[in-house]
Amino acid sequence: MKKITLMNANLLLAAGMLCLFCCTPATTSENTTETGDEAATNSKGDMAKEIKVVPREADKKVDVMIGDELFTSYIYPDDLEKPVLYPIIASGNYKITRGFPRDPRPGERVDHPHHVGYWFNYGDVNGLDFWNNSYNIPAEKKGGYGSIVHKAVKNTVSGKTGELEVSMDWIKPDGTKLLQEDTKFIFSAAGHKRIIDRVTTLTAMGEEVLFKDNKEGVLGIRMTRALELPSNKPEIFTDANGIASEVPVLNNEGVTGDYLNSEGITGNDAWGKRAAWCKLYGKMDGSSVSVAIIDHPQNPGYPTHWHARGYGLFAANPLGQKVFSDGKLALNLKLLPNESVIFRYRVVIQSESVLSPEELNQQAADFATVL
Questions:
Q1: pLDDT of residue 47
Q2: Which residues contact 158 (CB under 8 A, 6 or more apart)?
Q3: All domains of the chain in start order, with CATH
């Protein structure tokens, strides 16, 4: 594997560190199951729960169970333009991801049909928009959009932690393969905390690949209505039958979300700022729920800019530096054929109590050492 070519000097160190991960053993193509105790105790005394990773090929998904409860599913149906994790369910059966467009719930927004669950893609890859592609794009305009196609479940592990390794192809409208994606998810849970670690390797295929500075990227989660930030702007929402209607004045009852990042910036001011982590938190049915995304020091563009919107888009974008800095910075990540780049992210979900800055700082420190 060649080293990646970067257009920003401050990323050369991160690029050099990637070689440390090239020596890890190759993944097996067979499904495996970890044996041993079904539960373990972490340093805080919380009982860790067994994670079951269950492929369901006929349904084009892989379920991730915590005991007998669904945590999330990796889904790759034909009507989605990329595989996603959906839904994501916090301890206590709180669905933190929006239902629309797959399973509309009363009172939800119906904007941005490409915002489904938890996903990874980008808004300008060799001029193609992978971020905004959805069923809503007219056929005559599809030529400007790329799609991500699930190829294989390479490995699953169940046990004290759950693991899922998958491969995908980033393809152009003519079917040409632009990038190969190899992603490993690691799932864990203890007490009321659930964690998703993601390691994604993108490898350029037969041509040079440019991730041009763009606002739309890269790791995104579309949050449920209760975790949005209260707003007084007119919007469009769904009723219980999934029918959309304009709402000139918003009902903010039960909408309690707020942002906090590692630099102490809160609310809508977190948008576009750089930080090692960002937390969205609020109340769901009276219970405190926190969702944090943690950047990794070896990621390109660290610390990432946060594309964190009050209407429920919670995203980390390390590659769109120009728009977030008003033109003062630019990255324009470039890969030559057969070159690769690695992205690593941790998502921490806590119910019944709020994730504190001190705990998130510790989570970030732990994450930096294990992946």
A1: 62
A2: 33, 34, 50, 51, 52, 53, 54
A3: 9-21+31-370 (2.70.98)
